[in-house]
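Quick one, tokens below:
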């Protein structure tokens, strides 16, 4: 899937063929783009680049929402048919464990070669999602808002993201009343929040909205960056073979529960200080 930074205009292309498979100009051709908010935008005058070849330039104002877009080309009359695909618009300032430029340098792909940019960005995003699963939380420290079940009178609240850095607020869902955060004891590794004197949490309901910060700091740890490079190289070579970089060869891999791809052992070993106990 193609990914584009917010604020960048894009061009969508299509071909029109008859039933025999020959390129033909359509009698009519319409592009419809469905946006993340479910609204749609249609374009009925795409540029004809040659027999059966069309493109439509999409201005930034039409794709200013972050998220997933789908689109379809509908040809009528000569070459009647439907083609469809999708793309995503992302925040160019979002945290990435590995930049596109560094990824291309690692694979020895020239920066001027943009053929593989979308594929590389997709792989990087996939690697980052797996990395956050392995470590249990955000790579760069960020604010998290989470609804956490906690029975009346229970003495501990457990949040999901780690490492837990600090608690901003705890609000009883049933009453909307904020709980005091002045006497909290925070276990950063396990994500357990307790009161220092052992007092229970006494909200009216069985859940709290907890706002907290979690993550590994303000910069991507070097080991995580190197992990991403190693996994990217492994995934790249399984599909493309070595790209101007000799393969190390003989590298053992391991498949972890919940992962759809194997991870090189040398990459996994880099994460030992950060991984959840379940994966160690």
């Amino acid at each position: 899937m193609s990914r584009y930074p917010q604020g960048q205009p894009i061009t969508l292309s299509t071909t029109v063929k008859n039933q025999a498979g020959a390129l033909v100009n359509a009698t009519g051709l319409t592009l419809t783009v469905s946006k993340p908010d479910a609204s749609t935008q249609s374009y009925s005058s795409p540029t004809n680049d040659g027999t059966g070849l069309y493109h439509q330039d999409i201005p930034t104002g039409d794709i200013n929402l972050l998220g997933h877009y789908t689109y379809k080309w509908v040809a009528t009359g000569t070459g009647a048919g439907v083609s469809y695909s999708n793309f995503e618009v992302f925040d160019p300032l979002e945290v990435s464990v590995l930049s596109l430029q560094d990824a291309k340098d690692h694979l020895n792909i020239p920066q001027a070669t943009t053929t593989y940019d979308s594929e590389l960005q997709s792989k990087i995003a996939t690697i980052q999602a797996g990395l956050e699963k392995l470590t249990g939380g955000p790579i760069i420290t960020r604010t998290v808002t989470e609804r956490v079940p906690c029975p009346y009178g229970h003495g501990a609240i457990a949040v999901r993201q780690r490492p837990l850095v600090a608690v901003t607020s705890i609000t009883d869902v049933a009453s909307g009343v904020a709980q005091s955060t002045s006497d909290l004891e925070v276990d950063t590794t396990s994500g357990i929040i307790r009161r220092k004197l052992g007092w229970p949490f006494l909200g009216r309901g069985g859940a709290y909205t907890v706002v907290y910060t979690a993550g590994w700091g303000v910069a991507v740890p070097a080991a995580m960056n190197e992990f991403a490079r190693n996994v990217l190289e492994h995934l790249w070579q399984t599909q493309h073979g070595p790209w101007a970089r000799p393969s190390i060869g003989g590298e053992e891999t391991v498949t972890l529960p919940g992962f759809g791809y194997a991870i090189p052992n040398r990459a996994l070993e880099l994460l030992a200080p950060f991984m959840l106990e379940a994966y160690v």
